[in-house]
Amino acid sequence: MTAINITNARKELYNLVENVNRYSDPTLIVSKKGNAILISEDDWNAIQETVYLNSIPGMAESLIQGKESSLEDCLTEDEIEW
Questions:
Q1: 46 in a domain, yes or no?
Q2: SUPFAM superfamilies recorded for this chain (predicted)?
């Protein structure tokens, strides 16, 4: 993770945004009043989805169980009753 002080971050904001979007590498912005992290919107959305899925009781166990299932034991899309 790249770190930059707030003064330089102001000067380099355009380049910082370009870099976090291009490389998915968060940037730590350091300030005397507290630090912040600059991340891409895609990374933010992925984090939010992970937090949401982990908040559903039993979801983590269900995902692990599904990962360990063989494809032969899985249903096709046509076999699922919606």
A1: yes
A2: YefM-like
Range of the domain at 9: 1-39
DSSP state of 20: H
The amino acid present at 25, given as its one-letter code, is: D
Query: Does residue 35 belong to any structural domain of this protein?
Result: yes
Q: How far apart are CA 24 and CA 17, in angstroms?
A: 10
CA separation for the pair 61, 28 (Å, rounded): 33
Residues in contact with 41: Cβ distance below 8 Å, sequence separation at least 6, in sequence order: 21
Would the pLDDT of 58 be above 90?
yes
Tens of pLDDT, residues 4-21: 999 999 999 999 999 999
